[in-house]
């Protein structure tokens, strides 16, 4: 049986929405009836996705935003409310990877770059989303961490630090805001078939053999599979989940 959701009358915000997991999740929310504000730093790709959703009779708008800039994030949330009237659900998905590197050789520039987007970006999004949601007295936030937030892998210290930090942000804020009617959880994808992973495969930082060995399911995950997890976490069906970090990883963390 295929599970379907009805988000009619709800407003969802998705960052990193021009490709990969953000793209799949924005489409899934729109197909489930939500009005969706899509955000991405790539304005051209973003506009194309917005038009794709509208062409399929979905409700969507786009706002180009660099989540590393808090002022832009604040403007994004403001525009979402001005466009659709509220903010009910947020998927803070925007993230980047930096090249694998010996921990003793990693540059401060790379550390700051990956944490500015993956950690401070999620912090800024969550902060301004909460300001709106607490006025409404309700809302759901799903932050995108990674299996890299649950375990460590060699040569990826800065990236894993950022993703561990996302889980810390999620848990702390979840405890604070659950009594106010706002649920916050995190999703932790494994190796998913996205442009980021494709780039890692091209550069040799990841191989099909490594994926098959690490993920017992023996394949890359699909962006749509992560989207389904996000929709479930955003739905009333997960109403008792608070501060949870859900692995969507083909069994990687079950080792």
TrEMBL record:
Pfam family of the protein (one): adh_short_C2
MF-aspect GO terms: oxidoreductase activity
InterPro entries xref list: NAD(P)-bd_dom_sf (IPR036291), SDR_fam (IPR002347)
Domain of life (superkingdom): Bacteria
Record's keyword terms, sorted: Oxidoreductase
Annotated family: Belongs to the short-chain dehydrogenases/reductases (SDR) family.
NCBIfam families: PRK07231.1
PANTHER family: DEHYDROGENASES, SHORT CHAIN, ESTRADIOL 17-BETA-DEHYDROGENASE 8-RELATED
Protein name: NAD(P)-dependent dehydrogenase, short-chain alcohol dehydrogenase family
């Amino acid at each position: 049986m295929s599970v379907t959701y009805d988000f009619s009358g709800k407003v969802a915000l998705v960052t990193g929405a021009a490709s990969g997991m953000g793209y799949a999740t924005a489409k899934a929310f729109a197909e489930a009836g939500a009005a969706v504000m899509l955000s991405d730093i790539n304005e051209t790709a973003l506009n194309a996705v917005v038009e794709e959703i509208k062409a399929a009779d979905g409700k969507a708008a786009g706002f180009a935003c660099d989540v590393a800039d808090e002022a832009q994030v604040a403007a994004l949330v403001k525009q979402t409310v001005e466009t659709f009237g509220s903010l009910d659900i947020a998927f803070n998905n925007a993230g980047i990877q930096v090249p694998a590197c010996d921990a003793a050789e990693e540059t401060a520039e790379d550390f700051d770059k990956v944490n500015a987007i993956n950690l401070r970006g999620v912090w800024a999004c969550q902060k301004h989303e909460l300001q709106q949601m607490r006025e409404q007295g309700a809302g759901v936030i799903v932050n995108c961490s990674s299996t890299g937030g649950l375990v460590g892998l060699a040569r990826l210290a800065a990236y894993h630090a950022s993703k561990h930090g996302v889980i810390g942000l999620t848990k702390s804020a979840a405890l604070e805001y659950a009594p106010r009617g706002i649920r916050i959880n995190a999703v932790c994808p494994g190796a998913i078939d996205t442009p980021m992973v494709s780039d890692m495969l091209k550069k040799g930082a990841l191989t099909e053999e490594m994926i098959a060995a690490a993920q017992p399911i023996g394949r890359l995950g699909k962006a749509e599979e992560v989207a389904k997890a996000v929709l479930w976490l955003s739905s009333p069906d997960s109403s008792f989940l608070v501060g949870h970090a859900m692995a969507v990883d083909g069994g990687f963390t079950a080792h």
